[in-house]
Amino acid sequence: MSTLRSRNESAWLLPAGPGSNLLLREDMRRFRHEEEVDIVIVGCGAGGATLLQRLSRAGWRAVALEAGPFWEPEQDWVSDEAGSHHLYWTEPRVITGKDPVPLGSNNSGRGVGGSMVHFAGYTPRFHPSDFRTWSEDGVGADWPLEYAELREFYEDIEGELPVAGEHWPWGDPHSYPHRPHPVSGNGELFLRGANACGITARVGPVAIANGRFGNRPHCIYRGFCLQGCKVNAKASPLITHVPDALAHGAEIRADSMATRVGFDEHTGLATGVEYVHGGLRRFQRARMVAVAGYSIETPRLLLNSTSPRFPDGMCNDFDQVGRYLMVQGAPQTAGRFQAEVRMWKAPPPEVSTEEFYETDPGKPYKRGFSIQTVSPLPITWAEHVAAQGHWGPALRRHMSDYPHWACLGALCEFLPLEGNRVTLAEETDRNGIPVACFTYSQCDNDRRLMSAAQKVMEQILTAAGAEEVITINRYAHLVGGARMAAGERDGVVDRNLRSFAVPNLLVTDGSVLPTQGSANPALTIMALAARAARVLIRGARKGAPASEKED
Amino acid sequence: MSALPLGEDDGGGRYPGFSTLAQARHWDRVTASVVQSRMTLPPDIRFFTPAEEAAARTLFDLLLDQHDEPRVPVVNMVDARLAEEQTDGWHYGNMPRDGEAWRATLAALDSEAGSRGGCSFALLDPEHQAALLQDVCDLQQELWHGLPADRVWSLWTRYACTAFYSHPLAWDEIGFAGPAYPRGYKNLGVDRLEPFEVRDIRPGADPTRRTGP
Q1: Which of A50, A164, A375, A432 has the most beta carbons within 10 angstroms of its beta carbon?
Q2: How far is CA A520 from the centre of its chain?
Q3: With contacts defined as CB-CB under 8 Å, which chain A residues touch B176?
Q4: Residue in A292, A202, A225 with CA at minimum distance from that of residue A73
Q5: pLDDT over 60 at A551, yes or no
Q6: Residue B161 and residue A341: Cβ atoms within 8 Å?
Q7: What is the CA radius of gyration of chain B?
Q8: Can you tell which superkingdom this protein's organism belongs to (chain B) (predicted)?
Q9: How many Å lie between the alpha carbon of B114 and the closest alpha carbon of chain A?
Q10: Is A201 exposed, middle or buried (0-12, 13-18, 19+ CB in 10 A)?
Q11: From B13, which residue of chain A is nearest by alpha-carbon distance?
Q12: Between chains, do B181 and A399 touch, taking CB under 8 Å as contact?
């Protein structure tokens, strides 16, 4: 524990019980705009906040710009679905392609903490095979990084969140720092059904404290993880990394929307970030810039940062910015039981299986899927029911049956495709900046995975005793769009997340992922940011341009 | 506080005496005020024109089978969202932004009713109103008045369900316990209820075993 606390003291900086350390915010260090800070980070979610905490602890003068608010969970969040709309990124965007992907809810976030504020809480690691799908399976891409190089960062972050779960037999087998949580009706039925089918399923891995962690309390199983955890039991950077960052002199400027990365034609280096706060256009000078706005906003910011050197957008010499964006196919299958499941009780993330994660030579598709419990609340559940074509009396009748249903969700590894990308639309936002157009079309492998995953979920639920099953096809997560690669023709950043084109510009969010596995991406994004921070702290800082105000 | 009218055959009365709002004293203050505000006088119509309001009211009553009082004021709730631009932000490349899409599709309902029955959608007889909606639902990916029918259907049902199933009286009829902070739950597992939860008295009423709309 002492090692953990000396690495990240966040859990001890919070008040005992729910709430925030408001004193830390009041006393937050504030840099002047004309002062050249060591780094300005765009976005304060999984990638941005982790980098901010690591660098400020190492003494860097770091500023994070966050488009959304600095949350105070006790006042700003509610145990209510419709009342949580403000947790999502709802700025205008256009979606196109053969299979357009709706945004603005489960795959977006805003405010300090990012989308982890409302993520379910699953934090699986990627498998070693995820890092070389091209060599092993002839699909996707190889990472310029191996699993083994990320392992210690996975372990560190799992300790800091902390992650609870059973011993994990898949990928690189490992254990978790906290014991598995008790399961609700939904998890119980998953375990029962999987057992009957001979499928291994395990409790976890979830970033929810099981037992007191620092000053953070135990989970109370209220089931509103997706509306932001008021308890402080579920991890998000707001409570896992931001407190320690502030205590080490970081500044977070909330309600600050980045509009452009500054660039010096003479030196070929980034000079800072232009942003809008309170209607005013500002510029924060910095020696380095890290963009961590996630897979839609990161490419959008780079594409909007044009200059004579980069007429098509910053770091876009080879038309790589915005490309190879991925979502996971996330069909959800629900089963009807005579017994009452009441799946809304307890956190939606409980039990998962990664038995179908890797390529099975006997199957007509490459790569695979994972299956996890999900527990839709009434509004989301109504979407499941309405998707069956029910409306009017049939809708009300089906909805009255809510306590009898259990629900599983799959994450299918959709492949990175060149044409799935962000471009700029003609439409502009209220700051006059072109909005993102996100184009998505599935390939045959993607579709095969979706139907294979549905069959396994139907099999599990039926084996558990379900009388009927219904499925809704949907998507989850976003990664890619500014991927890491071995060379500049295949991606935007290198293995240390430094851009090929601008030596003092990094991308430190999910958009750097070359493949996505069937794992929820949050843990991997944090681990990659922690690794990039380590590289910077251990000397790459010397490679940064000398500042006139070098201290 | 009375229950929403819903016949036994339509799933009414399965959780006798259950009231989510009766638990409000166990909720945190912020959540309680958000949920309880839905029981108060709904906001006035600001976004819809009178003609749009009439079409929208009819549409929501049909989609949610609300034909008697008390009812969830869905038309006011959707109107408030659109007036405040509380949308999800994104829109399909072949659909306008949500506000505009609402105006266009409500006008299309009136125009369709005009060609079918020579009146506005709201004044069409109920049987033809329902038939018209089912036709839009069945068109799937085909165009309906220049817009993809499946996207139109999804726009309507998404807004309708988000409003209706955010209402505590709608929670009562589906047995949902509502907010659970700071109390949490202590009885997890199949068929395990909290002391305040009410068991379904017709557990065999599996709606998937029935036919019809």
Answers
A1: A50
A2: 7
A3: 344, 377-378, 402-403
A4: A225
A5: no
A6: no
A7: 19
A8: Bacteria
A9: 23
A10: buried
A11: A400
A12: no
Task: Please say whether the beta carbons of B68 and B5 come within 8 A.
Answer: yes
Smallest Cβ distance to A82: which of B88, B162, B192? Answer: B162
**What are the extents of the domains in chain A?**
2-129+140-169+188-317+325-543
B188 and A183 within 8 Å at the Cβ level: the answer is yes
Topology at the third CATH level for domain A2-129+140-169+188-317+325-543: FAD/NAD(P)-binding domain (3.50.50)
Residues 6+ apart with CB under 8 A from A208: A121, A164, A181, A219, A225, A229, A233, A234, A235, A347, A349
pLDDT at residue number A539: 77
Cα separation, A495 vs A484, in Å, equals: 6
Nearest CA of chain A to the CA of B127: how many Å?
13
What are the chain B neighbours of A91 within 8 Å (beta carbons)?
89
Query: Tens digit of pLDDT for each residue in A187-213?
Result: 999 999 999 999 999 999 999 999 999
Q: Name the pairing type of β-strands B143-144 and A421-428.
A: unpaired
Judged by CB atoms closer than 8 Å, whether chains meet at B93 and A100 is answered as: yes
Q: Do A401 and B6 touch (CB under 8 A)?
A: no
